[in-house]
Specification:
By secondary structure, the protein is α+β, with helices and mostly antiparallel strands. It contains 10 helices and 11 strands. The strands form 3 sheets. Strands 6-8-9-11-10 form a 5-stranded mixed sheet.
Length: 439
């Protein structure tokens, strides 16, 4: 039950932090504004009642005395002059009613009776509950009845008050939006900077200006980015150094093995040395691929670029075709992109026997390209894992079939280094399609 209780509030809260902050702040401000208006209205009501109680008794006493002294035929002429917003006089006995129901009305009647004195035989009864309306009955000195009909009500609201309330609400909305934007913009910038991090530490730096908390977070993020980049560079440098240094002893061993007499063991040794050289070269290539983003982008003719790439393979007798291309130009890191596509084409030829290259643009103008084959494909569960270094689908250590496990990893890392994304998917009818999206 406690878990369900803790999850319940999240069902109605918006997903984004900005929306949640906006909702919470706006609701708090609206509640505070509503409470303030309620207290002001109550205070205004109490003040109006107090003023009425303090002034009505004096005015009523004066009015009753005036009517009592006027001749009977002149009394109707004075009723309009003595009428007020909350009460009026009637020259009759009024209408039957019920006992007074509110303490306020009883208090007012007692005050009036005290003001006019006992000679007028004051009594009162209520004639309506909603709206409240009650009558105070007098008997003038000549025996004529006189009735005071009281209808308590608040003074009407000023016509400009709704306009002021709407302006206040608009001001609350603007201030809330501005506060939420100022509070969440650093988080958005932090997320964008984190997504743009690269192994070469050339990603965007966060501005270290602004409030203290934001500046501290920006400094911490920039420092972290530099440390991560430094550690990655050190790791790649170590890998490149080891791979490079291994080439010399491998070369010496291969030269010595070639001087051995022809035998089966000699061929096995040379084969193992060739595999080691291949692994060393791919290790160096993987280490260097992290720095592909350092290449200066150039504007190329997209169609000519793909035709040149495909024709180079066709000149070597490799089964590579260009199934679709696009016109126009694009700013790319040409050498790095050619190497990525080359790795994907080599992989497609190796496992599918042939490669099919295509390119297109999305509706937003993003450049996309794909290398497809009709090979055995890759299990869905392994589509992400094959992009990791030294991962091979085959359990066999035979590198003629399983490879060194670095071809796709080099392509993926180099694609990220040049600001793109590499995704693998199985084709309908069999085969694999590798799609590159350049942002």
């Amino acid at each position: 039950m406690s878990f369900l209780a803790s999850m319940a509030p999240k069902r109605w809260l918006p997903r984004s932090m900005a929306s949640r902050l906006y909702l919470i702040i706006l609701a708090g401000l609206l509640l505070a504004q509503g409470l303030s208006m309620a207290l002001q209205s109550y205070e205004r009501y109490e003040s109006a009642v107090s003023v009425m109680l303090n002034t009505v008794e004096n005015e009523v006493g004066t009015s009753v005395a005036i009517l009592d002294r006027l001749p009977v035929q002149e009394r109707p002429n004075w009723l309009g002059r003595l009428q007020r917003d909350n009460y009026r006089f009637l020259l009759d006995a009024g209408q039957p009613g019920m006992p007074l129901i509110s303490e306020r009305s009883r208090q007012l009647v007692r005050s009036i009776a005290k003001e006019v004195g006992p000679d007028y035989h004051v009594n009162a009864d209520a004639v309506s509950v909603k709206p409240e309306r009650y009558q105070v009955h007098f008997t003038l000195h000549d025996g004529a009845p006189l009735t005071l009909e009281i209808t308590p009500h608040m003074a009407p609201v000023a016509s400009w008050l709704p306009v002021v309330l709407m302006l206040q609400l608009l001001l609350l909305l603007v201030c809330t939006w501005l506060a939420v934007r100022l509070a969440t913009r650093p988080l958005t910038q932090l997320a964008q900077a984190a997504e743009s991090m690269t192994p070469t530490a050339d990603g965007p730096r966060m501005s270290e200006n602004g409030p203290t908390e934001v500046a501290q977070a920006a400094v911490a993020f920039n420092t972290m980015q530099e440390r991560v980049a430094r550690h990655l560079k050190e790791r790649l440098h170590i890998l490149a150094s080891i791979s490079h240094d291994l080439q010399t002893p491998i070369t010496r061993m291969r030269l010595r093995a070639e001087n051995l007499e022809e035998c089966e063991e000699r061929e096995k040794i040379l084969k193992d040395l060739r595999e080691m050289e291949h692994l060393v070269r791919e290790g160096v290539a993987y280490a260097r691929s992290a720095h592909g983003g350092a290449e200066t982008p150039v504007r190329i003719n997209v169609e000519a670029f793909f035709e040149s790439l495909v024709f180079d393979y066709q000149d070597m007798g490799r089964p590579v075709t260009l199934s679709g291309s696009i016109d126009g130009t694009a700013m790319v890191r040409q050498q790095a992109l050619r190497r990525v596509l080359g790795n994907l084409i080599d992989n497609a030829i190796k496992y599918g026997g042939s490669a099919e290259v295509s390119a297109w643009r999305t509706e937003q103008g993003t450049l996309c390209m794909a290398v497809s084959d009709r090979g055995p494909g890759i299990p869905e569960a392994s589509l992400e894992q094959v992009l990791q270094p030294f991962y091979r689908l085959e359990a066999s250590r035979n590198r003629d079939t399983g490879g060194a496990g670095l071809g796709l990893a080099i392509a993926a890392q180099l694609t990220r280094a040049i600001g793109g994304n590499l995704a693998l998917a199985n084709r309908d009818g069999g085969g694999l399609i590798a799609t590159i999206t350049l942002s």
